[in-house]
Design brief:
Keywords: Isomerase. InterPro entries: IolE/XylAMocC-like, Xyl_isomerase-like_sf, Xyl_isomerase-like_TIM-brl. This is Sugar phosphate isomerase/epimerase family protein. The protein is an alpha/beta fold. It contains twelve helices and eight strands. Helix 4 packs across helix 5.
Length: 285
């Protein structure tokens, strides 16, 4: 896997982009996933760009933001245009969003139709820039279950709509991550990897808590120490997935304390696992 750090992990720390990139290089990451608000703020310093990042042997795997799927079309269009230009500035070909802020069981038929129509428009706008729109599997959205995610892909029906497969959130939905992977496999273009000590503590990932500097971090644990069995999931990819997935972008999405320590140790453990892979014998299951 091509592993990224997420700049959102450092959202409450006084760390510069220079320091983050130098640390990512020194710790053998391949990419950064750039939070949209960070990309916007860095636009005032245009010398920070894809060429500058390449000087450290790094790329931008994805710009992550939150697109308006309801409300005035002009607002959505303007935000998409801004983010696409930022993505091109950083050399990213993927723009991540969420499929609404309501779960699939909470929207009306009309609301769902309006949301999917807006997503179709956004896909067409991003396609003009050569950008893929990435929807994350996530609770409280239209991608909160395998059935609804597949329905969403069918309703939007655009070739540049793909999936960010968040392993924990798929597990949270009640799906075995391996089964979910096989269901969505043709549409997956990115992985998010994170873990929790217990399902009882999943509320720690709610946006009001995660984005609060004083929010709880209870339950956040390194990748191989939590309730989701990442050894099993990653070993399945190692043994049965084809090279597309073995070389796919994957972000270590850490929201807790001691960012550098946890991220560097998780990266090392993933590297050790995948070094066992013989690409010549990998196959699609």
């Amino acid at each position: 896997m091509k592993l990224s750090i997420c700049t959102i992990s450092f959202r409450h720390q006084l760390v510069s982009i220079d320091q983050l990139v130098q640390w990512a290089q020194a710790n053998h990451f391949q990419s950064i996933e750039l939070w949209g608000v960070h990309a916007k703020n860095l636009a005032e310093q245009p010398s920070y760009n894809k060429e500058w990042l390449a000087g450290f042997g790094l790329t931008t795997s994805m710009i992550s933001d939150y697109l308006p799927l309801q409300g005035p079309e002009t607002d959505a269009f303007n935000k998409v245009q801004q983010l696409c230009l930022l993505a091109k500035h950083w050399g990213a070909t993927k723009l991540r969003t969420f499929a609404s802020n309501k779960g699939s069981q909470d929207v009306t038929v009309q609301e769902r139709a309006d949301i999917t129509r807006r997503m179709k428009d956004i896909c067409q706008w991003t396609a003009q820039h050569g950008i893929t729109l990435i929807v994350e599997t996530h609770p409280g959205t239209l991608a909160d279950s395998m059935a609804s995610t597949l329905q969403l892909l069918e309703e939007v029906n655009q070739p540049n709509l793909k999936i960010n497969f968040d392993v924990l959130h798929v597990w949270e939905s009640g799906e075995d991550p391996i089964d979910g992977f096989n269901v969505l496999k043709p549409h997956i273009e990115h992985f998010h990897l994170k873990n929790i000590s217990s399902a009882d503590l999943l509320s720690v990932f709610s946006p009001p808590n995660v984005y609060s500097a004083s929010g709880s971090r209870e339950g956040l644990v390194p990748l191989f120490e939590g309730a989701v069995d990442y050894s099993r999931f990653l070993n399945y990819l190692r043994e049965y997935a084809d090279a597309k997935f073995l070389n796919m972008d994957a972000s270590l999405e850490w929201f807790g304390d001691h960012c550098k320590k946890v991220l560097s140790e998780d990266r090392y453990k993933i590297q050790q696992l995948f070094q066992q892979c013989d690409f010549s014998t990998s196959h699609v299951s």
